[in-house]
Design a protein that fits this description.
Length: 357
């Protein structure tokens, strides 16, 4: 459902005060497969580049698992294939940056990202989302404001992805996969955006209910049928990417990660939401605790034994909005079941951790 609000901005300056231009956020789309030998080093090179501090909060990343070489990745989807054909991708690994850079991710360098960062955004995008694990429902709110007059021919895209997957291991040696695209909302064709004038805003609501139970296809020849099944390993580890893209020429004018929870300006009441995932689980010497927060806040991580004894405690100060990963050293912990409590002033969430050496 869409709500439309019209207003005008006479000038970028009011009373001599200049409004800051929104941060340019670039879209990094990677086409890859767990059966592709060059994809393993390609993904490593990509993640190393994106993790540099100079890139913090300046990009969003999305990966499409492909149906080749060989039998392809079991997490291949028909929607990912649509994106492949959109860019005429005929080799993997392949990365697109804002629909412009087109090459093996191993060949990417910082200047390729910097070129896109320097382009002023045409729109301001904000996205919020909620995941109901019990009903397997993902709700997304997107607000878009035109920063310049927008001609017809562009679309808004929304993708649900899983931060880390493990079950689609193939033949190339990779055991963990980042930002795997799971479903596009409402579909891979996106949402047509009507012409907009500078300062005009639109609001969109999207909902997707994942059907059935988890299913791991044998290979890409039997892709997930979203009408009866899904490939979500953990609903607590889902994220959202949104972007605004011109259909001819492929230029992406702005992108954003979704923020867990709903916009506090759009609802009467709002509670901070914390979703979490622990991996690997069981863990031997180390476990990563990934959690999501809706607002910047202090977060405590407490680990309790099966007897209720506190065996580890840490406080993370001023954790930023979005996803944070805390590395827990489990070398000193005995084999067994533990409870990990992640808490803030706004709420808490507990997860089970198994230590097995």
């Amino acid at each position: 459902m869409k709500r439309k609000i019209l207003f005008t901005i006479a000038s970028l300056f009011i009373g001599g005060v200049a409004f800051a231009q929104p941060q340019r956020v670039t879209l990094v789309e990677t086409f890859t497969s767990s059966t592709c030998p060059p994809c393993a080093p390609g993904n490593i090179a990509l993640e190393q580049l994106l993790s540099q501090s100079v890139n913090t909060d300046k990009y969003v990343s999305l990966k499409y698992q492909m149906s080749w070489p060989g039998s392809g990745d079991p997490y291949f989807t028909d929607e990912g294939d649509v994106r492949r054909n959109f860019y005429s991708i005929n080799s993997v690994p392949r990365t697109e940056i804002d629909g412009n850079f087109d090459d093996n991710p191993s060949n990417m360098v910082q200047s390729d990202l910097d070129i896109q960062y320097a382009i002023a955004p045409s729109v301001d995008l904000q996205a919020y989302y909620q995941v109901n694990e019990a009903t397997q429902t993902v709700d997304v709110q997107v607000d878009m404001e035109a920063l310049v007059d927008l001609a017809p021919g562009s679309r808004l895209f929304v993708a649900i992805f899983e931060y880390k997957t493990f079950n689609n291991v193939g033949s190339n040696g990779e055991t963990e996969f980042e930002h795997v695209m799971k479903k596009m909302m409402p579909s891979s064709t996106g949402t047509v955006i009507s012409p907009m004038t500078t300062g005009e805003s639109v609001h969109y609501d999207f909902t997707h209910v994942f059907q059935g139970s988890y299913f791991l296809p044998a290979d890409a020849n039997d892709p997930i049928d979203h009408a009866i099944e899904h490939s979500i390993e953990e609903f607590s580890d889902l994220g959202i990417v949104v972007w605004y893209q011109k259909m001819s020429g492929h230029d992406v004018y702005q992108a954003a990660y979704g923020i867990p929870g709903f916009n506090p300006l759009a609802v009467d009441e709002n509670e901070a939401i914390i979703a979490a995932k622990i991996y690997p689980n069981p863990a031997a010497n180390n476990a990563a605790i990934a959690f999501h927060t809706q607002e910047a806040q202090d977060v405590s991580i407490d680990v309790y034994s099966a007897l209720g004894q506190l065996v580890h405690s840490a406080t993370l100060e001023n954790v930023k909005i979005g996803r944070t990963v805390y590395d827990l050293n489990t070398e000193s912990l005995y084999n067994g079941m533990y409870t990990v409590k992640i808490s803030s002033d706004q709420g808490s969430l507990s997860k089970r951790l198994i230590v097995q050496k």
